[in-house]
Specification:
This protein is mainly alpha-helical. The chain has a domain at 63-171: AhpD-like, CATH 1.20.1290.10. The chain has 9 helices and no strands. The chain has helices at residues 14-27, 32-35, 41-56, 63-76, 80-94, 97-105, 114-128, 135-143, 148-171. α3 (41-56) packs antiparallel against α9 and α4 (63-76) packs parallel to α7.
């Protein structure tokens, strides 16, 4: 159960009701991560605009790579809620449950491209803050053929998931199997 008060869709009015209607229309339903932000509808909308831009907007990164970054970041933070949500989204692209589960449990057992492996490594390094200087990682990405926009997008996604993971963990957002049904990925 959440550690703070939340407002359910049927109890919402005004701006929050508009935000919930928009989320239902665009995402298919309202997630617990949305409800936890119900006391501040404007921040919820700003959060969702950022999410939609970095996860669904134009980018040199493929959609599966963005979901993969979310899963690896969430796994490093031990955020089960976000791991489960974004594994489900990743499955829409990978269509391989075992591969997706191994991404969380033991990434070395799956055959990832060099770029995907580098992206996963960066997500884990940045999340766990292995080093205050990531210039070698950036140069390695550039040598591997990623342009600066792709690198920027990867870092923004990693930073976003660190933000959301901490909100979810700090405020007690809980995962349930029922929550997984009905989203548009």
């Amino acid at each position: 159960m959440a550690h703070i008060k939340t407002i359910a869709p049927e109890e919402s009015d005004g701006r929050l009701s508009e935000v919930y209607d928009h989320l239902t229309e665009t995402r298919g339903k309202i997630a617990e991560v949305h409800k936890i932000q119900s006391l501040n509808p404007e921040a919820l909308m700003a959060h969702m605009e950022l999410y939609m831009t970095i996860m669904f907007g134009k980018s040199p990164l493929k959609r599966y790579q963005r979901e993969m970054l979310g899963v690896v970041t969430s796994a490093a933070n031990r955020c089960e809620y976000c791991i489960n949500h974004h594994l489900e989204a990743l499955l829409a692209y990978w269509k391989d449950e075992e591969k997706a589960r191994l991404l969380v449990r033991n990434r070395s057992e799956i055959d990832l491209s060099q770029t995907d492996q580098m992206l996963c490594d960066l997500a884990e390094k940045l999340t766990l803050n292995h080093n205050p200087d990531y210039s070698d990682d950036i140069v390695a990405f550039q040598k591997a053929g990623l342009d600066d926009r792709a690198i920027l997008d990867a870092v923004q996604i990693i930073a976003y998931f660190n933000f959301v993971n901490r909100m979810v963990l700090g405020l007690g957002v809980e995962f349930s199997e029922e929550e997984m049904k009905g989203y548009r990925y």
